[in-house]
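Listing S7. Sequence submitted for prediction.
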Amino acid sequence: MKRRTLAITAALVAATALTACAPADKGLNAAGFPSEIVIGAIPNENSSDLTGTYEPLIKMLEEETGSKVLLQQASDYAGIVEGLIADRVDIAFLGPFSYVIATTNQADIKPLGSLAGKRGEPSGYHALGITQSSNTAVNSIEDFAGKDTCFVDPGSTSGFLYPAAGLIDAGVVASGKESDISAALKPIYAGGHDASALSVKNGDCEVGFSMQSMVEETLPGKGELASGELKSVWTSEKIPGSVFAVRNSLGDATTEKLTALFTEKANADYFESQGFCSADDCLITGEHAWGVVPATDEDYEGIRNVCASTKSEKCES
């Protein structure tokens, strides 16, 4: 099983890679942007898939800024947060929990915008508690007690934090602390939303958690999950959307320009109109979302409230 010690080791390796390999601070080009912009990506899906899902965004940014845009991938959320704190990542795509962790750890960042799954929809999404459809012994989150349970990562919003809150509300666990989680069930950290769902499908975990769009749209769309293979037995309250955040040390003027680019041009409609991609290839990030809409730090107060209620150590790490 992948326990917390392994997760921490992976985080340290990811952070070292980002801080060692990413370029140092750069001067500004004629358009007022850094000559190189480093985007840090989180593992919503397998790392091999991420480059393609960021390609239209990278093309847009390079055309609009005149900068070289580099994509840095980490094995988990903590590596991206460490890269931000060390000023080796300029823009990061973070789950809402990871964003809150970053600000708690004195990362001087602000939102550029958050993801909307489809045009005209508000930002935000849900987590699901899942099991195999044939599993008649599990029909609610209360039935997760004592079972091999797949979480995504201790730093995942919909793959750990909100599920922990759901387990507390159901009386399954006493808190979101690692010791209480392990006392009530058998946690396995799969590392990605796709990996968590597929581990349940394959029987490596009897139950688990993943984001709703991964279970209902992304994996079925890729042919990796057939209709009826999994059933949902729990749905979280609405979670604030994943966010693109920028380090404030780039300066107010640069940050304002980047905010405008993300909220006005980082979307599938614009990408397709400019010939950067076509159809579903224009959907961005591992969440395969339509694009970016305005967001503020205040939008993530709900995450901080869930942190307070779960008492998860990751909220303070």
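Caption to Listing S7: primary sequence and predicted structure tokens for the chain studied. Residues 1-17, 19-24 have pLDDT under 50 and may be disordered. The first helix runs from residue 4 to 21.
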